[in-house]
Amino acid sequence: MASTAVARQETGCDRRRCGMTGLAARFASLLATLALATGCITIDLLGGGGDAPLAETVVRGVAGPKILLLDVDGVIDGAPSLPDTLLGASPPSTVARVREVLDRAREDDEVRAVLLRIDSPGGTATASEQVYTEILRFRRERGVPVVAQLLTTAASGGYYVAMAADTVQAHPTTVTGSIGVIFTSLNIAGLMERIGIEDQTITAGEFKDAGSPFRRLTSDEREQLQSIVDDLHDRFREVVEAGRPALGAERVRQLADGRIYSARQALENGLVDRIGTLEDAVAELERRLGVTASRVVAYHRPRESRRNLYTRAPIRGLGARVEWPLESALAPAGMTSTLERILARPGFHYLWWPGLDGAR
Question: Which of 29, 55, 70, 348 has the lowest tally of Cβ within 10 angstroms?
Fold first, then answer.
């Protein structure tokens, strides 16, 4: 009898294990199906993800006025980094996150300054302009000092955003500049000819498919696209002239040839005001406020970790990202999903990314 009871108990355990194994297998199958449909998925396993309100954490100091720590990190884009899935909404774009943080700061009269921390190679022209405009608007509305601290890379659109600050400080190892515009498009016409594929696109309008990857640009099309790149370059120079008034239009024109600068070169050319660390930037803001102590605060999702002045919380939000082999095989080496997405379609970018060819 005892052996029979044990046998039944073991059989029950086996069945439960089999049931759990089957459930896990079905869940894995669901994830795989979603992955094949979307390329990648974001799972907020702990809650408090993209829909949760922003929380505040003091990352430095215990008393005094608040200094908002605002991050512009990674490729600047106006679209979510991932599509929505059955498991939740995508984390917000760079533009949406910056606007959300500044709106939160507008509700707090204790916020008296902004430390704009930038580590970005740039991004789309429109998103860079939008982030720049949001920061400049907050600075003017509140009448607060804004110090831009450039970190590893603050190039092209990253430098564009820095022009919203009234003081720009580079880290000793910063790479910045790249004041230029790039239009990205591929031409696979030669390959198509070799394998016997012919483009049969039908258009109305001479320039309707200018930049198509399926045929070579005509001289008129190249000239027309170049005119747009030049207009966007003019806008970039206008922003730099407004942010660095001591340089003057002619000097900005000389510096805005697309090249990058080291921190020391940027300082010598007047593109930044000083070289220093994040602590130096806080000290400069305290000096501007006329105080000897301050509280540096960061706004973040409830489960994003912000422990000190150096903690980096990605603008893309919180989640466990599952990347599948198909995505890795198709993605160019070294490209982030955001960069991969914005370069997958023709567009005009304030972006520094070595190896990309295009008009500047």
Answer: 29
List C-alpha distances in Å: 254 to 241, 248, 311. Answer: 12, 10, 37
The answer to whether 344 touches 124, Cβ cutoff 8 Å, is no
For the stretch 13-46, pLDDT in tens is 454 444 445 555 554 455 445 444 444 333 444 4
The domains of the chain, with CATH numbers, are 52-196+206-351 (3.90.226.10)
What crossing angle do the helices spanning 94-106 and 125-142 adopt, rounded to 10°? 10
Who has greater pLDDT, 335 or 180? 180
Note whether 181 and 349 are within 8 A (CB): yes
Residue with tokens 């590893």: 152
Element (H, E) at 184: strand 182-184
The number of beta carbons lying within 10 Å of the beta carbon of residue 38 is 16
The Cα–Cα gap between 91 and 7 comes to: 51
Strand (E) or helix (H) holding 141: helix 125-142
State how far the Cα of 50 lies from the Cα of 68, in Å rounded to an integer: 21
Cβ-count burial 165-180 (b if 16+ within 10 Å, e if not): bbbbbbbeebbbbbbb
124 bridge partner residues: 349
From the list 132, 130, 105, the residue with the least C-alpha distance to 118 is 132
Cα gap 57→307, rounded to integer Å: 8
Which pairing describes strands 175-177 and 260-262: parallel, antiparallel, or unpaired?
Answer: antiparallel
Classify residue 76 by its DSSP letter: B
Give the containing element (helix H, strand E) for 232: helix 219-243
Catalytic residue IDs: 156, 208
Question: E-assigned strands of 78-174?
Answer: 111-120, 122-124, 146-155, 167-170
Alpha-carbon distance 188 to 214, whole Å? 6
- Tell me the sheet residues that pair with 153: 175
Question: Are 20 and 14 within 8 A, CB to CB?
Answer: no
| Segment 253-279, tens digit of pLDDT | 999 999 999 999 999 999 999 999 999
Sign of CA pseudo-dihedral 153, 159, 164, 165: positive
Q: Tokens 């600068």 appear where?
A: 261
